Amino acid sequence: MHDLNWDDLRYFVEVVRTGNVTEAGSRLGVNQSTVSRRIAQLEHQLGKALFDRTAKGWVITPAGEKIVMLAEEMANQANAIHRKIESDSEDVSGLIKVTASDVCFKRFVLPVIRDFKRGHPDVDFELIAAEEVLNLAGREADIAIQAIIEPPPNVVGKRICRLAYHVYGRQELLQNLASETPSCITWIGDGVTMPGWIKKNFPKLKRAYRTNSSVAMFEMCREGLGLALLPCSLADEAAELVRVPLEHEESGCDVWVLSHVDLRTTARVRIFRDRMVEFLTKEIDLLEGRKPRKN
């Protein structure tokens, strides 16, 4: 067996986590051919195949399973070293990786980045649109702005408020709601059964559309394709949409601005995080669904 290139283990870990080289490359900031080459290099060094390449993705082999826990631990330790080195940095330059939903980026994050760059032009940004919280310990992101039930471990942050949701649709859909059964728009990941908001309020509704994009859901609702459960901070600013009267209200999640505990004193992360908190705090009425509707 040849001497290992330990950096190749990062590529191995990302392919295990994502299941395909394209997504792994996106997270690592390289193209998929680089990921494939680094995995092949690692397999050559070990003398074992770590993945079966299939049409549906890369499937880890028994040999890969034997080393995956150790490889993940080594990757986590390497990331911890990197965070410790940066933790006391007062240099307001470098890269900040921010993750949030695509809707949150447009309405809340981009205005803060624009103003931040005016005072700190040497800071670069990488924006990662995701509905779920990424692995901050694994440096998938430095700052997360997410609506979640509870923050993950080893992070610090600020709770802003409770994000309000409501069911929205175009006025013409609501006028026919009593006599017809309009379509609804739901998440791809919400399971095979009807979501609770449909079961409780509209048992006769049919689900015609599913998506994994909050922007797509919003735009489909604006086009009159169906009813959708949307954050009030998004839908209340759309003149085409009205709130559907509900017997059973849906509870939302808490809005948090999060970063890894080791980066809490890193200047660029700390300053941007504070700016994000300040901006969102001014928008609490909108986030909680209390801001007057636009007509």
Mean pLDDT: 80
Give the strand order, joined by hyphens, for the main sheet: 4-3-5-12-6
Strand count, sense and barrel status of the largest sheet are: 5 strands, mixed
Number of helices: 11
What percentage of amino acids are in beta strands? Answer: 15-25%
Helix content: 40-55%
Query: Nearest-angstrom radius of gyration?
Result: 22 Å
CATH architecture level-2 label of the largest domain: 3-Layer(aba) Sandwich
> How many strand elements?
12
| Backbone shape | globular
Structural class: alpha/beta
Which superfamily, in CATH terms, is the homologous superfamily of the largest domain? Periplasmic binding protein-like II
Sketch the topology as an H/E string, one letter per element. HHHEEHEHEEEEHEHEHEHEEHH
Using the coordinates shown, work out and report the CATH topology of the largest domain.
Answer: D-Maltodextrin-Binding Protein, domain 2
User: How many separate domains make up the residues?
Assistant: 3
**CATH class term of the largest domain:** Alpha Beta
Q: What is the terminal-to-terminal distance? A: 70 Å
Low-confidence stretches: none
Task: Describe the fold and architecture.
It holds the Pfam family LysR_substrate. This is Transcriptional regulator. One of its GO terms (biological process) is DNA-templated transcription. InterPro entries: LysR-type_TF_proteobact-type, LysR_HTH_N, LysR_subst-bd, WH-like_DNA-bd_sf, WH_DNA-bd_sf. The structure is a single chain. The chain is of the alpha/beta class and 295 residues long. It has three domains: 8-87, Winged helix-like DNA-binding domain superfamily/Winged helix DNA-binding domain (Arc Repressor Mutant, subunit A, Orthogonal Bundle), CATH 1.10.10; 94-163 and 253-287, 3-Layer(aba) Sandwich (D-Maltodextrin-Binding Protein, domain 2), CATH 3.40.190; 165-243, Periplasmic binding protein-like II (D-Maltodextrin-Binding Protein, domain 2), CATH 3.40.190. The chain has helices at residues 8-18, 21-28, 32-46, 62-87, 102-119, 171-175, 196-201, 214-222, 232-235, 267-282, 284-287, and strands at residues 51-54, 57-60, 94-100, 123-129, 143-148, 155-162, 165-170, 183-187, 206-211, 227-231, 241-243, 254-260. Strands 4-3-5-12-6 form a five-stranded mixed sheet, with helices on one face. A five-stranded mixed sheet has the order 9-8-10-7-11. It starts with 7 loop residues before the first helix and ends in an 8-residue tail after the last helix. 30% of the residues are buried. The model has no long low-confidence stretch (mean pLDDT 80).
